[in-house]
Design goal:
By secondary structure, this protein is mainly alpha-helical. The protein is built from five helices and no strands. Helix 2 packs across helix 5. The protein is rod-shaped, with a radius of gyration of 34 Å. The protein binds heme C. The site of heme C has 29 residues, from helix 2, helix 4 and helix 5. InterPro entries: Cyt_c-like_dom, Cyt_c-like_dom_sf, Cyt_CIE. This is Cytochrome C. It comes from Idiomarina zobellii.
């Protein structure tokens, strides 16, 4: 009887502890899942916020380099020479233009000149940024 009793107690305890273990682990799995779900839900907001932050940082990080402006705005015409655009670092294309003096060349680039659009379509470029792009386009001449 004593033996039976302790066996009974043990198995009850065993069942209870098994149940307890299962329910605890189920609870923690559920907890993990909801944490994941929450992370999933707030992720786009987080990303958006970070993206907004970094573009704000880009804008406020000073003037773009000549290469950055060129690669984004000027390359469309000045790499292949579309509509007679002087090609990048092509001395024959640039000699006569540079002979006008940089002031005139810059003025043409900022205000537009025949098929050359004002500021080469970089409407928010400063004169300094346009100048940097011109320098980049003519650096090997
Ligand atoms: C839509 C095409 C196009 C884009 C984009 C463009 N250009 Fe031009 N650019 C031209 C053409 C065409 C000419 C030649 C105009 C002419 O001499 O009749 C030219 C000429 C120039 C000249 C020579 C001006 C002169 O006095 O002879 C400069 C400098 C220049 N571009 C700078 C730039 C810069 C800097 C950018 C980018 C910020 C840029 N361009 C983007 C088409 C373009």
């Amino acid at each position: 009887m004593r033996v039976m009793n302790s066996f009974f107690v043990k198995s009850v305890l065993g069942t209870l502890s098994l149940f307890f273990t299962l329910s605890v682990s189920a609870a923690s799995v559920q907890d993990d899942m909801s944490r994941e779900a929450i992370a999933e839900r707030i992720k786009p907001i987080g990303k958006h916020y970070v993206a907004g932050e970094s573009s704000a940082a880009e804008e406020s990080s000073g003037p773009r380099s000549g290469q950055q402006v060129y690669d984004k705005f000027c390359t469309a015409c000045h790499t292949s020479g579309v509509m007679g655009a002087p090609k990048i670092n092509n001395a024959a294309d640039w000699e006569e233009r540079l002979a006008q003096g940089m002031d005139t060349v810059l003025k043409h680039a900022v205000e537009g000149f025949n098929a050359m659009p004002p500021k080469g379509t970089c409407s928010d470029c400063s004169e300094e940024e346009i100048q940097a792009a011109i320098d980049y386009m003519t650096k090997d001449i």
